Amino acid sequence: MPNNKLMEKIVSLAKRRGFVFASSEIYGGLNSCWDYGPLGVELKKNIQDFWWNEMTLRNDIVGLDSSILMHPRIWEASGHVDSFTDPMVDCRQCKARFKADDLPQDKMEKRQCPNCGTKDALTDARNFNLMFKTFMGPLEDDTSTTYLRPETAQGIYVNYLNVATVSRLKIPFGIAQVGKAFRNEITPGNFIFRTREFSQMEMQYFVKPGDDEKVFEEWKERRMDFYLKLGIREEKLRFKEHGPDELAHYAKTAWDIQYEFPFGWQELEGVHNRTDFDLKRHQEHSGKSLLYFDDVSKEKFLPYIIETSAGLNRTMLTVMLDAYWEDEEHKRIVLKLHPKLAPIKAVICPLVKKDGLPEIARQIENDLRPHFPVIYDQQSSIGKRYYRQDEAGTPYGITVDHQSLEDNTVTLRERDTLEQVRLPIPTLLDEINSRLKADWKP
Ligand code: ATP
């Protein structure tokens, strides 16, 4: 399938099945803003839970939920006020806007617009700060200016001593957080890949200086493993190291985990060695000591921080793209989602709308629903019902037929292999639960 078509197909499937809608659609939409529909929220939540469990079902990592609005001086200390900028250029002719970094050298030299082709049309590059500014309280002046956080990390740094003390954590330890971040991106796009409002899943791991390089390597590997566990194909994932000219102002080493999107290899997650840069700066700007006291060695020091920073929405796009499968043989579209990620776990279908079959199917629905999301469907032919759910990524289909009346059994259909087994109704819950828990490979 040509790659550009794949994005169109995913956008269309996402809308058709209620994963993602354009935001403010009845007003013509709002550029790069998206709303998550019933299946989208479930999928996003399942990815988040998967990540959260990976991070916090360990004895050295705890969670935090810090606020989006924080003291504006945090962003001075972090370097975002001065350095969180992208150079942008505009085309005077067609008004298109570009990140200067994305423009090919020859176009920049000729000042030629890559959109309309006009020569000498591009403006000089101007630095544009990506933080969204807002005002706290009724006055709109400099003293009330604050920012929507552009990353969740800083909330962790300024709280790290509180968290360590109350949780009695000893170095090395980590703090995990999932939350919204906002960036006034110059070139948002590619559906939910790059948006101005998005969620990050970040874990900041605090280590003794000197241990940072070893721990960095461990987290790098663990984070790649996470995407494999989500069921993403190995050949579509790779590491990419930031060269010296690409390194962010805070980083000693930075590796991206990249996925091969239809529009090229792009970052999915950043694993960074941020050293003690952030804590040092917060210490300087706040005047408060952020030194960690090691009660074994009796030393005081500023820990180094290994950051793993992933995008939730971007991971969801990756999961959907990677799972998309046109099954030519059976003329169906399937989202081969990891069963744990699937928004709905099972569809329950009476073969016909009569003879007492709907009642049995409703009973199964009621029995399963407290355990995981299920859906009841009696509309149209059984084939069509299954195909609808294949597109939604529902891994299991349960059909109640006339034999069910006689022996209390049903068929259980598996989405990808189309394998069907006949099972006693009372064993369904255990069977589906054990399949959901099993290791899964695409
Ligand atoms: P990019 O260069 O792709 O904009 P970045 O290097 O600025 O990303 P980081 O600051 O390392 O990204 O952010 C960590 C993660 O947060 C990214 O890997 C990505 O998954 C997610 N992310 C960052 N910016 C956006 C955005 N505008 N929309 C959606 N997700 C984003």
Automatic annotation (TrEMBL):
Single annotated GO MF: ATP binding
Subcellular location: Cytoplasm
Known catalytic reactions: tRNA(Gly) + glycine + ATP = glycyl-tRNA(Gly) + AMP + diphosphate
Family the UniProt entry places it in: Belongs to the class-II aminoacyl-tRNA synthetase family.
PROSITE patterns per UniProt: AA_TRNA_LIGASE_II
Residues annotated for substrate binding in this entry: K99, E151, F198, S199, Q200, M201, E202, E307, T308, S309, A310, G311
Pfam families reported in the protein's UniProt record: HGTP_anticodon, tRNA-synt_2b
GO BP term, pick one: glycyl-tRNA aminoacylation
Residues annotated for ATP binding in this entry: 183-185, 193-198, 267-268, 311-314
Known role: Catalyzes the attachment of glycine to tRNA(Gly).
InterPro entries: aa-tRNA-synt_IIb, aa-tRNA-synth_II, aa-tRNA-synth_II/BPL/LPL, Anticodon-bd, Anticodon-bd_dom_sf, Gly-tRNA_synthase/POLG2, Gly_tRNA_ligase_bac, GlyRS-like_core
Domain Aminoacyl-transfer RNA synthetases class-II family profile span(s) in chain numbering: 8-343
Name of the protein in its database record: Glycine--tRNA ligase
